[in-house]
Specification:
single chain; alpha/beta; Rossmann fold; 2 domains; 4-stranded parallel β-sheet; 11 helices; 39% helix; 20% strand; binds 6-O-phosphono-beta-D-fructofuranose
Amino acid sequence: MAKKVAMLTGGGDCPGLNAVMRAATIKMVSEYGFEVVGARRGWKGMVEGDFVPMDLQSISGILHKGGTIIGTSRTNPYKEENGVERLKESMEKNGIWAIIGIGGDDTLGAADKLVKEHGLNIVGVPKTIDNDLSATDYTFGFDTAVGIATEQIDRLHSTAESHDRTIVVEVMGRHTGWIAIMSGIAGGADYILIPEVPTTVEDVCESLQRRHDERGKNFNIVVASEGAKMLTREGGEQLLTISDKVDAFGNVQLGGIGEALAGEIEARTGFETRATVLGHIQRGGTPSAHDRILSTRFGLKAAEMVKEEKFGFMAALQGDDIVEAPLADAVGERKMVPMELWDIAKTFFS
Ligand code: F6P
């Protein structure tokens, strides 16, 4: 009887998820003769036994499609009532031999625990627009998000320049500033705030004022990562959040630095200042060519790893190579923006 493999996509949706599943399914079905199913809505589908068949027909035409055809959620099997027991039962009942978990630190963190504590056969694929997973140079989805943010910054430049305005662009990225630093450099930002580099409101305002006074510039683009703290020289410190609610993995919903900083800049410099929050636009739609290729390479590698029973590992990009990395290495520590990138970015601040 054919071995049965379940794929799941967990956490925020991300461009390239479908491309991973397409590649993995084609390899597993055509080359290895495995049977493949998709668990609907991430770990939720695994726990509830909610599966859809994945075959050459169902994965046809999805390479370029955003989102995930099997749905996603932030369900944590460890937080559901008898979640892990139910997950094991549903694997048993549905004859599932192995799982390919496609997700970020939360999804892969749960995968790592399930392998270590329960001996489940799981391989991972690193996904997130935030690019904050260790053990891989890049995650898929990040390049697309940076491309989208850069395009939006270019558009906002037109308005900033035409109206003599300062525009604060708030981008995603959770507790790292990867999207902010890359799109800020690519979009020619006049200041960038990232969680890795404590920056006060005074630092930002003084820089914008110098740009005006010394270079005669009447407009500015400031890129702020949602996870950067609002700091003041008197010692004020605030991480802005949309609400106090936390998800099943303990994450707060970040957001608000754009508006708050815009208010401070206008009050302190007198420059007319607006905020634009890019939000989920950064996660939506078709993946870039780069992400389609990376996702395809990850999907093929994950299939190969299942065949070779490399459980507890994930596909990773190191240099130009797709390699295997322990899941624990990916989720143990957040990958922060290196100071070389910050140094590049700050060369262009006044
Ligand atoms: O991890 C991806 C991400 O888009 C983060 O950048 C952001 O903080 C978070 O997800 C938003 O999550 P949600 O869509 O659940 O609000």
